[in-house]
Write a structure and sequence with these properties.
The protein is an alpha+beta fold. It contains six helices and five strands; from the N terminus they run ααβααββαββα. The chain has a five-stranded antiparallel β-sheet with strand order 1-2-3-5-4, with helices on one face. The longest helix is centred in the N-terminal third of the chain and has 14 residues.
Length: 149
């Protein structure tokens, strides 16, 4: 006996992944954090622009869209520190050009002075405020990429 899955059911299964995610799913769990890192209470963004965006997101809502929820995780290790900022918008995030200018200025891409990176996928925006060689950032980016395909 051959089992067949209707094409519409397969499509629904594959697209449900993106729409069923929550910020809690995207955040790093304690068992996913490299051993050298610990949680930190205060926001420790590499540059003030990233934390300002997180703290004052409502100020930018006309440009980027209305935020449904947000969360931040802050980490520290002996040679690394930084923050991961998670945003879920009411609708698709629409502020790519604005965010690039805010984070990186005229360069339009990460630099040594402004190393933040971000990914915007559908209603989600994740900003990593870490140095490029951060093991924790790599771990988080891999998780986000897998969940928000």
């Amino acid at each position: 006996m051959k089992i067949t899955i209707p094409l519409s059911a397969l499509f629904l299964f594959l697209t449900t992944n993106l729409f069923s995610q929550t910020i809690a799913d995207l955040k790093l769990k304690p068992k996913e954090i490299p051993k050298a890192y610990t949680f930190n209470d205060g926001n420790i963004c590499i540059t003030p622009q990233a934390c300002t965006f997180y703290n004052d997101i409502e100020t930018y809502s006309n440009i980027v869209g209305t935020v449904k929820s947000k969360a931040i995780q802050n980490f520290r290790s002996k040679g690394d520190r930084g923050s991961i900022m998670y945003f879920e918008f009411e609708h698709v995030f629409k502020g790519d050009r604005f965010l690039q200018g805010l984070l990186w200025g005229k360069d339009g891409q990460p630099t040594d002075e402004h190393p933040e990176e971000y990914v915007a996928k559908g209603k989600f925006l994740i900003i990593w405020s870490f140095r490029p060689d951060s093991a924790l950032r790599e771990k988080s980016e891999a998780k986000i990429e897998a969940l928000l395909q």
